[in-house]
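Extended Data, panel c. Modelled sequence:
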Amino acid sequence: RKKEIWMIVFFFFQAEDGIRDAQESRGLGDVYKRQDNFPRNKLIMGQVQRRKGNLAKNKKFHKKRSTTHYTKDIDQVYDDLKPENVEKFVAPQFDETLPGFGQYYCISCAKHFTNKHALDEHSKSKFHRRMLKRLQEKPY
């Protein structure tokens, strides 16, 4: 008599972490999406990564951001160029909160400068010449 030997072999593959969850897997991509590759406090370019998207409905933030670098409108500058208003800009008062202590001011651009050289260079700039051209015609 011949003896028959039957051998049954089972192969078990260990699954990636996260696949064996209560929810049904959608493939390997599902595993990598759930891994925390970027912890909250990981440094990126020398700074702590901040949480994004929480300012979308913050009205105070949007108001502050839109008025931070607010400059005068063209009609306000036009009013400043009238002879009765120019006097206060010709001899400005000393104010230490302004650049150049408020002594170097371009009336047509409504900007303060740190020194005389910066004001002279500004008067040669394209921005200054554009403002002068815009101020020649009366604003709405």
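The mean pLDDT is 77. This feature is highlighted in the accompanying rendering.
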